Amino acid sequence: MRFRVISALSFVLALAVQALPAQSWAADAITLTLGGRIKEFFFVASQTQAPADELNSTGMFNDTRVSVEGRTVLDNGITVRAFVRFNAITREGNGVDEAYVDVISSFGRLRMGEKAGLNTTTIGDPVPEAFLSVDEEILADVLVPRTAIVLRDGFTFKRFTRNALGISYQTPAIAGFRAGVTYHPTPTPAVGTINGAFMPHDALDVTADYNGDFTGGTYRVAGGYFRMSSSRGGIRAGQDGGQAWNLSAGMTYGGFELAGAYINSQPADGRDEEAWTVGGLYGIGPFTVSADYRHAKRQPFPFALIPARAFFEHAERTTVQGAYKLGPGIVVGLAGFYAEQQDALGSAYDGGGVLGGIKVDF
Question: DSSP class of residue 36?
Answer without folding.
Answer: E
